[in-house]
Design a protein that fits this description.
The structure holds 2 protein chains of 2 kinds. Chain A is α/β, with parallel strands linked by helices. Chain A is flat. Chain A has 2 domains: 1-30; 32-167, Double Stranded RNA Binding Domain. In chain A, α2 (52-68) packs parallel to α4 (149-165). Chain A has 4 helices and 7 strands. The termini of chain A are far apart. Helix content of chain A is 40%, strand content 26%. A 5-stranded mixed beta sheet of chain A has the order 3-2-4-5-6. In chain A, strands 1-7 form a two-stranded parallel ribbon. In chain A, a hairpin with a 5-residue loop joins β5 (116-125) and β6. Chain B is α+β, with helices and mostly antiparallel strands. Chain B has a single domain, classed as Pleckstrin-homology domain (PH domain)/Phosphotyrosine-binding domain (PTB) (PH-domain like, Roll), CATH 2.30.29. Chain B is built from 5 helices and 7 strands; from the N terminus they run αβββββααββαα. The longest helix of chain B is centred in the first third of the chain and has 19 residues, at 2-20. Chain B is extended. The chains are: A alpha/beta, B alpha+beta.
């Protein structure tokens, strides 16, 4: 009887710990960088020639995904004069480091070949140019969708990085 | 007397030559072309189908009963490109993937060539936007020429001039890849 009781107690304690541990982990996470707004600069592709539609699609998708996130109060476009007087503004610079055009036809016919991928170096800086965070992000389309879907994948990943590291409250 | 007799035929010849030269219309307005707006136009949903035309210094995109206008003066860059899309539509194409003996994959082999038109423009606040359109082959260059003729800027115009003057290059489409 004692043995059963001790087993039940130990099981319930471990169950409680299992549920509570993520809450403690969240508290131990490093504080987010305070940023009220973000300005997205046009994607730079000096080293690698990127088709114009890819460049624009990366930029537009990035802005759309950042707007969907709750992290920033406002998302400004490249050259927007309203961003000039915003406090706690973060500027996102993106430069293309790799691009593989792939083929939608090859993807659909073979399902293993024809992957489209784009590798981009993202740098979050202050207005003065001081680097806050740098990361390489890859956008891919492996199975379904046109080649431009790789830009959507990149935008979603980058917006997630921004949400994980920046907040308008700094928490 | 001899002098007068020679000037008269020369004058007549010059007048006839002048009449024979075709009168060019520098602001030829192209017919509206069917286009799909993939992304970028403010207030227009992605993948919206409509017609694209250039008129009175504006790029018009008519979709449904609505029209989105883009002033040519706000356009910073126009680039054309080539791509292809599935000949069999999205829903049918997706359902066909379940067809036996790889029938769906066989359908994927059939693709239609299309043109892409990428336009970079600024809003009144100076914010940079980009819009991407797809349209039937051969129509993107017409729209681009109209836009440039009416004052739009393009970064690829010099490259295009070089390509068109070169005897080895028959295609004038920019290949930025």
């Amino acid at each position: 009887m004692k043995r059963i009781l001790s087993t039940v107690v130990s099981l319930s304690v471990s169950a409680v710990l299992f549920v509570v541990s993520p809450l403690f982990a969240e508290k131990n996470q490093p504080a987010k960088i305070k940023a009220a707004a973000i300005q997205v600069r046009m994607i730079q592709s000096d080293e690698i020639k990127l088709p114009a539609e890819f460049q624009i699609s990366l930029y537009e998708n990035l802005i759309r995904q950042l707007e969907k996130q709750d992290g920033f109060e406002h998302v400004y476009r490249d050259g927007d004069r309203n961003a000039a007087n915003v406090a706690d503004l973060v500027v996102l610079h993106s430069s293309v480091r790799g691009f593989k055009a792939g083929s939608e036809r090859a993807r659909q016919v073979t399902t293993v070949a024809g992957t489209t991928s784009v590798a981009i170096h993202c740098q979050f800086t202050t207005v003065d140019g001081k680097s806050l965070l740098e990361q390489d992000v890859k956008g891919k389309v492996r199975f379904f969708g046109g080649n431009l879907r790789a830009t959507y994948d990149f935008a979603k990943k980058t917006a997630r990085i921004a949400q994980e590291n920046f907040s308008s409250t700094g928490r | 007397m001899i002098h007068r007799s020679t000037t008269f035929p020369i004058g007549v010849a010059l007048l006839a030559a002048g009449l024979m030269v075709p009168v060019g219309n520098p602001q030829q307005i192209a017919k509206p072309v069917k286009a799909i707006q993939l992304t970028g136009l403010v207030g227009v949903k992605n993948d919206a189908k409509g017609t694209l035309s250039v008129d009175n210094g504006n790029l018009h995109f008519m979709h449904g009963k609505e029209t989105s206008d883009l002033s040519v003066t706000s356009i910073e860059d126009v680039v054309t490109g080539a791509d292809s899309r599935k000949s069999v539509g999205n829903t049918v194409g997706l359902i066909s993937m379940a067809a036996p003996y790889g029938g769906g994959r066989f359908l994927s082999l059939f693709r239609t060539k299309i043109d892409t038109l990428t336009v970079q423009y600024r809003d009144p606040d100076g914010g940079l936007h980009g819009a991407i359109f797809t349209m039937p082959v051969g129509t993107a260059d017409v729209i681009k020429k109209d836009l440039v003729a009416q004052g739009a800027h393009t970064s690829a115009i010099e490259e295009q001039d070089v390509l068109s003057t070169s005897p080895n290059n028959s295609s004038t489409k920019e290949q930025k890849q």
